[in-house]
Amino acid sequence: MKVVFDSNIYISALTLPGSQAEKALLRILDGPDTVLISKPILDEVLSVLAKKFSRDADALSHVAVTLTEMAEVVKPERMVEVLADDPDNRILECAEAGRADCIVTGDKAMLALKRYQGIRLISLREYLASSN
């Protein structure tokens, strides 16, 4: 299954050891699922880690390398304006460009869409439950 994680999933996984978000990343490393990421998503994750969590350049570089090695990097060619929060639109673009099966998010506005271009939007809990 091809999945796109909302930026907050990465941020939670990287700042809260033992969290459900960390379990989702470990599932990617251990299982058959493929996570898709784009440069705008990676940039947002790194920006938040730097500004809100005071991560230094070395830590940010390590995160960037780790995420790009574990993910399939996609390059969206079409910009969308579906949601009010612009970074959320970057998630939709990545999922569309990579032909994702689902988007995993905790964002209520995104979850309210339920589907985008045939791609399911599901909660972290739903994603983790689907592995059983």
What would your notes on this structure say?
- The chain is an alpha/beta fold and 132 residues long.
- The chain has a single domain (2-129), classed as 3-Layer(aba) Sandwich (Rossmann fold), CATH 3.40.50.1010.
- Helix content is 55%, strand content 14%.
- The protein has helices at residues 7-15, 20-30, 39-53, 57-70, 86-97, 108-113, 124-129; strands at 2-5, 34-37, 72-73, 102-104, 115-116, 119-122.
- A 6-stranded mixed sheet has the order 3-2-1-4-6-5, sandwiched between helices.
- Helix 1 packs across helix 2 (20-30) and helix 1 packs across helix 3 (39-53).
- The longest helix is centred in the middle third of the chain and has 15 residues, at 39-53.
- The protein is globular and about 40 Å long.
CATH superfamily: 5'-nuclease
Q: What name is given to the CATH topology? A: Rossmann fold
Total strands = 6
Name of the CATH architecture: 3-Layer(aba) Sandwich
Please sum up the structure shown.
By secondary structure, the protein is α/β, with parallel strands linked by helices. Helices cover 55% and strands 14% of the residues. It has helices at residues 7-15, 20-30, 39-53, 57-70, 86-97, 108-113, 124-129; strands at 2-5, 34-37, 72-73, 102-104, 115-116, 119-122.
Task: Note the topology.
Blueprint: E1 2-5, H1 7-15, H2 20-30, E2 34-37, H3 39-53, H4 57-70, E3 72-73, H5 86-97, E4 102-104, H6 108-113, E5 115-116, E6 119-122, H7 124-129
Parallel strand pairs: 1-2, 1-4, 2-3, 4-6
Antiparallel strand pairs: 5-6
